Amino acid sequence: MKRLLLPTLKGRLAFWFTAICLVPLAVFTTAIYSQRVQLARSLMLDKLSAVTALRQDQINSMLDNLLSDASTLGSGKSVLVAAQALMADPAAWSGAAATDSLKLLRGYQDEYEPVADVSVVAENGTILLSTDQARRGHRVARPEMIVTALNDAVPVIGEAYLLGSEVNASLDIAAPIKKGGGEGGRSAVVVRYNLRKLLSVTLENSTGMGKTGEVVLVDRNVRPLIELRGIPNAVLKVKLTGKPALLAAGGQSGIAQTIDYRGVDVLSAYSHIPRTGWGLVCKQDSSEVLAPIRRALYLTYGLAAVISLLVWGFALKLAGGISAPLVKLSETANELGEGHYEARVEAEGTLEQISLAGSFNAMADTLQMKMAAQQGFARLSEHLVDAVSLDDFFKKLLPAFVDVTGARMATAFVQDGAGDDFVPAHAIGADCARMRRCSRSQLEGELGILLTSRRIARFSPGPGGESLRFVTPFGEIVPAELVTVPVEADGELRAFVSLASEHPFPLWVHDTLEMVRVPLGSAFSRVVAAEDVRRLASELAIKNAELVQQSEELVQQSTELAQQSDELARRNRVLDQQKQLLEEATRLKSEFLSNMSHELRTPLNSVLALSRVLAVQGAQRLSEEERGYLGIIEKNGKHLLSLINDILDLAKIESGRLDLFMESVEPAKVAAEVVDSLAVLAREKGVALSLVVPEPLPPMRIDVKKLRQMLQNLVGNAVKFTSEGSVTVRLTVQAQEIVFEVADTGIGIAPRYLESIFHEFRQADGSTSRSYEGTGLGLAIVKKSALLLGGDVGVTSEVGKGSVFTLRLPLDCAGGEAVREPAPEAVPVQAWQAPQPQVRSVLVVDDDQEAVSLITAHLAQAGFDTLSALNGPDALRLARAHRPFAITLDIMMPEMDGWEVMRALKEHPETADIPVMIISLSEDRATGVALGAVGVISKPVGKEQLMDAFARLTGAGCRLVLVVDDAEYDRFFLASLFKEQGLDVLLAESGPEALELAVTDHPDLITLDLLMPGMDGAAVLDRLRSNSSTADIPVVVITSKELSHSELERLSSGVSAVISKNGLERRAVLDELVRSLNRLGWRLPQRDPGQGARILIIEDSEAATVQLRFALESAGFRVDAVSGGRYALTYLKSHVPDGIVLDLMMPEVDGFQVLEAVRASSLTAAVPVMVMTAKTLSPGEFERLRGLQVRQLVQKGDVELQELLQRVYEMLGCDNLFRTGSGSAPPARPDAPKWEGNGSVLVVEDNPDNLVTLKAALGGKYPIVEACDGAAGLDAARSAPPSLILLDMHLPVLDGFTVLKRLKEDPATASVPVVALTASAMAGDREKVLAAGCAGYLSKPYQPEELQELVASFLAPQGADPV
């Protein structure tokens, strides 16, 4: 924009000179104007403020006069007389008194023009007499004003108002009519004034406020009281919004510049008249006030414009003198830009301008020289690209150098091959033959300078230089300057060019040579590289010929490799086929073993089962010899079963499906059990069998079953093959291994058989195989089991002298192999040893001798032997030496306190399992329990408290168990185990519910699942241990979670044992629970059926409940009672009674609803129920009770107490609670409907012997339906659905799995329970059968008792009708 408006320097200078002069003038003028405006505004506001004050004083003075006039009128005697007459008789307005009074009043009206009328008014505001006869009898505008004036006895000014159609406001002033003594009557004189006339002199005078000045008077509601200039006819009709009027009406005074009611900017002053509530505003338009100042400003701006023109002319003249030399300089620069490099500027003007012209001319000279050098460089560059060979390079280049530089002589020297000499290659103006070679190594002459500096060298010969001359037709000339240009390639000097001239070279020539030096080297490098390429191309052609020959040879070799690759692929395919054949062989082997197991177990089932049936049923009828025959049958059958198990174990080891169940054991103990089991056989043969353990052995972690099996095979073989002498079993420890040596004095083994005896079905040859029975599997199982456990077995033997088998096993067999922790076995975390009832000693640890004596006396009275220690070190020594049954420990002791003693006891393996009871003044129960204490007793200790604590340790017995598990199946499963053992059970499905039951019922034992939603098992355990009332309750964790080492350590101080939930098996879980109770020193209760059972009474009658409770408790029963069906349902969610006495008729939830809930839960489905009711039952209700399996029905009032107890005994004895049959049959799901069927058992079995065996085992208790193949069994089930199906899985026509699938697909048979009776006992067979839909699984051969118990869990025998 600036360039467009002021394109020339002259214009810009003129502009800025003018701006510099005018801007201060404009600023100064504006400042003066602003100052004068402020001054004028201030003066005017002061003036308006004075006018306002004057008008306010005038109005106040006028009001004072008006009040005085009204008061005078009210004091007139004629007015008083008239008022009294009119008050007495309003019709006396025409009387003499009224006439006299009117004369006075009209005289005042005529005398003062603003008076509109004067009236005599009664107290109620009615006009009695008025100068305006039209108003007589009417009421004044503001009647309340009359009351105020009469009450205050002073004149009162009323509010302004409009009367009728008048356009001007009226103002009333009332004064009381008084007697001469000052007492007035109840009437007043009211004077009405015309406000415009009254205030015209005061308000319409605008003196001192100019033409636009105006005085505005508003009432308290901001309405104008007089006419406004800007709004006609606005009196008391318009509410003004201007700020001054609002402030004045609101009681304020001041000045302001603002917008008035017309929307015009004004200067105003305002004030308030308190006695009337009016606001007074005096204002004048701002434009009128500032008009003189604006005229002065316009005059000033006119003078500034004239001055601006004069300044602009002067600036143009001055700018022209400054810019003229610069314009010439610009013109010369343009000529240079067009290529006229000889153009120069004439130096003139001031010294600065002359200096600028000289500098510009010098720059032009330099530019002219640079351009000449650039042109020379361009001409030389054209010749640099023409040469294609080294010989042609300098022949074309030297003439160009001479032409460009004006030299008279030019020579080129090139490095001679790989040598150090430079030889002349071409010359102009000189003879190459006379030129000498230059050596790189001597650094002489120009070459030495070039090699040293690597720059262009220049030389000017002195006056006496006669050696170098130019030959011309006119004679010889001495050169004035020599210039040598180096030529580099790859950073090395490879050539140089020398130029000579009779006069010094111009400066631009030197610049040209400097510029061309690098391109010259690049061009020389290109030419040299081209020479090298041509040479290499020639060599490459020779090499290519050789490569073609080699390629032909490679093609021949690749053909041979392809043939070899095809052969290798063929062999790989053969290997893959062989691998598939091996896998198929392995599969067929496993299938064979499975089939063989089935085929062997099928007849074996009949052998063992029938022999057992005969032995039991015919014990009285058979002779001793016949019983011996049965014993032989059973013994050989078990031997055959053992053989089958060995084969299956071997197959499992080879297939890698053998599960190892690790636990910590004493190896000497296992060895002793094996030796004891074979001692009878050894004695019969006259062989001495002994066990030698020369030193204590550490415990080892191993699969006990496998260890026992290996030792059984080794020791059994030694006894079998030893006819006389001895068999010695020796146990030693070496490094981290336990070594079992079995040495015998038997027949020995030949050296050639020492390796083969560990193979399957292999024995020593010759007489051994003929004289001794066996399959050759025992040692193979030992070998493979040892390797599987990370160990090995070896043998040394000498024929006729005996053998020594050495079994080496690591202390921790789980360290190397990936083994699975046992599903049903426990992982003890705080494994206490079961207390020995023969000797029970207690170690008492306390630094207070009196406390030791007191505790010792109490324990001695209870039958304990005691040891005592007064400090920590002695306590540790005695505990390790005597291993007492329990320890009582004080905490606050010198040297080593109780916490340190506790930690040392738990860290030492010999004392870690000793129960510790803390008896101390310290009540830090949480720390004690965390460190492993079984209880905390605060001092002073009482005998009763001490005995209660030790009663728990010594086997007082466990009666109440709390089962905590969110899984209903697992919760009911564990509860059933405890109920079978005669324990009472509490159930909790969440952490908070478990904590509540633990506090309220204080169970003797808690089984706890770790994985629960919300509050998990670990949190529950922490809360139990932190509560003093539950901290000492033993806890057994039963969980499906694989616990890490850190989790086990965390649990170690809070639980008694950890049992894995994976693959729960009834017998194994029960055994582990019994072991856990034994560790606590407890025993399971032993009670007869019906004695001490827990009975639940559900009765809404309190009297009946009291009678029943008394009768049952007197008979030794434990009784719980609830007062209705709703409370019974709540009770049964967490408690499992042994029997229920139920009333049918109850509010809200009746007895039938309770019965349905009881039978719907698998945990209480078999609980016997006796119904007591006063209701006469209908046949339908009888059938309903029969369907709900009610055992006893008692009519209230029909039985005596003794008969009632007898009925209870019968109820408890008619069925075994929680009968589950085989451990393989899981309880029925709570939500599954109970299947009735026709009461028969369908047996699908293709083996006739097994059919006979099964019927004999069941003993005719159930109707049996037989089917000999799968299709017949399916038809029989569909034609008459039985109550239970016993199904063999290996059947002709249709196999068991197909039969099972079709049964479950048919709605008519889908609910029939199916139990698999099969000889399939391989790993995974049980899980496969149960997953297919079977309700139970029993492997052949089975014991008759197992079959009977299994069938009884699904249907009752004949004759067991519930009602």
Automatic annotation (TrEMBL):
EC nos: 2.7.13.3
Q: Which residues form the HAMP domain?
A: 320-372
Q: What is this protein called?
A: histidine kinase
UniProt keyword Coiled coil present: yes
Q: Which reaction does it catalyse?
A: ATP + protein L-histidine = ADP + protein N-phospho-L-histidine
User: What's one Pfam family here?
Assistant: HisKA
Q: Which UniProt keywords apply?
A: Coiled coil, Kinase, Membrane, Phosphoprotein, Transferase, Transmembrane, Transmembrane helix
Which intervals of the chain form a coiled coil?
Answer: 533-595
The UniProt transmembrane annotation reads 13-34
Q: Which InterPro entries would you find in this protein's record?
A: HAMP_dom, HATPase_dom, His_kinase_dom, HisK_dim/P_dom, Sig_transdc_resp-reg_receiver
Which CDD domains does the UniProt entry name for this protein?
HAMP (cd06225), HATPase_EvgS-ArcB-TorS-like (cd16922), HisKA (cd00082), PDC2_HK_sensor (cd18774)
Q: Start and end of every Histidine kinase domain?
A: 595-813
**In this chain, where does the modification 4-aspartylphosphate occur?**
890, 1009, 1143, 1288
| Response regulatory domain span | 841-954, 960-1076, 1094-1212, 1240-1355
